[in-house]
Design a protein that fits this description.
With about 170 residues, this protein is α+β, with helices and mostly antiparallel strands. The protein contains three helices and nine strands. It is globular.
Length: about 170
């Protein structure tokens, strides 16, 4: 249980690295956090140290009365569920698509929603550096045609899609 939070600390420090980002990364025009809340399954991501050994990764988001978002990330690691709890808040009120997320004060990282299904059935999350990337779905599996469309779009936007790794799903009992 300690491994995931410690690794998330590394991510947050990396997201907060000094220096200007490359060209601005466009986000979706509008996010309704009420619709965005709920469970998301990780379909693929750029591998990160804090997720090493994880399968069945998912995130649960709950909108709080104060407007922030409660975050519960979890995965299956070594046969046990590993979790990290955090908080996110909107930093771009015009779109609602740029958030900051923190698992350990005072560290925080960018959580930018750069693609979102019209029915909130999938989402793609990154950061201005484009070093982090997650493809999420409301279901543990994603139609391969949809996945390939998303990957083509990411490639067109300049992401190194060769680094994408599919996330195994289907082994959790909770």
């Amino acid at each position: 249980m300690i491994a995931l939070p410690c690794a998330l600390l590394c991510l947050l420090c990396a997201c907060a690295s000094a220096g200007p980002p490359p060209a601005a990364l466009p986000v979706v025009p509008k996010v309704d956090l009420g619709r965005y809340a709920g469970r998301w399954y990780e379909i693929a991501s750029f591998p990160q140290r804090f997720q090493r050994g994880c399968t069945d990764s998912r995130a649960d988001y709950r909108l709080r009365d104060d407007g922030t978002v409660e975050v519960l990330n979890s995965c299956l690691r070594d046969g046990r569920v590993d979790t990290a709890k955090g908080r996110a808040w909107v930093v771009d009120k015009a779109t609602g698509a740029k958030l900051k997320v923190s698992f350990f004060w005072p560290f925080r990282g960018d959580y930018w929603i750069i693609d979102l299904g019209a029915d909130y059935d999938y989402a793609v999350v990154s950061a201005p550096s484009m070093k982090y990337l997650w493809i999420l779905s409301r279901t543990p599996q994603m139609d391969d045609q949809r996945y390939q469309e998303i990957v083509r779009g990411l490639k067109d936007r300049g992401f190194d899609v060769a680094k994408l790794s599919r996330t195994p799903q289907g082994n959790r009992k909770d």
